[in-house]
Amino acid sequence: MSAVTLFKSLKETYIQDADDGELEWKRLYSGLLEIPDAHYTTFIRLSYFRQCKGAVQRFQEIPDLYKIYKSPTKLFVSHKWEERNHPDRSRRTLKKLLSLTQTSRDDTAVWWDFCSLPQKNSQTGLDDRSAELKEFFKYQLTLIPLIILDSQSMFLWAEAGTHSGWCCVELLITHALLNHLNQMIYKRKNDFCKPPLFITQLESGPLIESDLYRFEHQIFYKLYSSDVANDWHKKLITWMNIQLNQGKPTPYSHVIRKVTPELISKMILEFNLTFTNGSDSKTVSDMLFKLYNKLSFEPFDSFKWEGQADLLSMWHYVKGCLGSCVVPKTYYWF
Predict the structure, then answer these.
(1) Which residues on adjacent β-strands are paired with residue 111?
(2) 3-class SS string, 64-83
(3) How far apart are the first and last CA of the chain?
(4) Cα–Cα dist 46/105, whole Å
(5) What is the DSSP string of 252-304?
(6) What's the pLDDT tens digit per position in 282-314?
(7) Are 331 and 324 in contact (CB under 8 A)?
(8) Is 246 helix (H, G, I), strand (E, B) or coil?
(9) How far are the Cα atoms of 138, 175, 212, 270, 331 from residue 320, in angstroms, in the given order?
(10) Of 75, 95, 234, nearest in space to 155 by CA
(11) Residue 31 in contact with residue 23, Cβ under 8 Å?
């Protein structure tokens, strides 16, 4: 069952029985995120991009055989769209993706917004999507933090992406999750034989920013980033620190704890971040605030291992907490 089919089925089933149907079916849909590898979104097989002769196609035109939901390796692509109707006519982003995945398997799952979400017609510029696909697209945007958590993120943009609202928000989300995962593992380092460590791979080499580096560990490359994107993240966080703490050196977790939707909106204006869709500014402000708030105040210390330390259990615990950011009253239980 595809993510779109699941979306339609749940809506048809639960709107009939709920007084507040819209809210209820979204809760049920988000609840399926408790199932590992549930078909909540659509990834595209790397083999599609390898055989692609022209520009990549939009979601509706990609054959179903290339659509995938479960894979040992998932990649999230963050890039700057080249034009309003198509992200990559020059194939520049495609070539970069292929150069970084030469040793990856064909069934590696790639989340690329143009290919993974229903899009307008790139030839005519007209919106020929059904009402259901438009609604599916809108809801999928709210799941981006969960998709990023499930994936290795690849920030393929450089200078052109520094003023893209979505590029910057994706960057902030990814670094917040990277920091939080390492922090959680550090607190439980003695529960692991070899604590996992999530690090960033830059163009110039690996970047390790964690106390876990002092321990024997197993490395996971959670993030690939251009040097420009990584430097830009530091600039955004430094700006937040100046606004909230007069620039005094402050732990990352203390900075994001003080962030408000108003501060994010101010940052968007001051850095001249732009969105193709004007309403996206408020969407990302709320998304980032909820994420920061959850990562700062969720009582993660209360999470106890049941038996031997298990990274997968912790992963789904964090995923469930993020699910409750997207749709209220959705939780994971162990």
Answers:
(1) 76
(2) HHHEECCCCCEEEEECCCCC
(3) 27
(4) 7
(5) HHHHHHT--HHHHHHHHHHTT-B-SSTTHHHHHHHHHHHHHHHHHHS-GGG--
(6) 888 888 998 998 888 766 666 666 666 778 778
(7) yes
(8) coil
(9) 21, 19, 24, 33, 5
(10) 75
(11) no
Chain mean position to CA 193? 29
CA distance 165 to 96: 21
Alpha-carbon gap, residue 72 to 69, rounded angstroms = 10
Instruction: Return the H-helix or E-strand segment holding 28.
Output: helix 21-31
Residue 15, Ramachandran bin (φ over 0: left; ψ between -120 and 50: alpha; else beta): alpha
Inter-helix orientation angle 3-15/21-31, to 10°: 140
pLDDT in tens, 55-76: 999 999 999 999 998 888 999 9
Closest CA to 42 of 111, 104, 95: 111
Taking the C-alpha atoms of residue 250 and residue 17, their distance in angstroms, rounded to an integer, is 49
pTM for the predicted model, two decimal places: 0.89
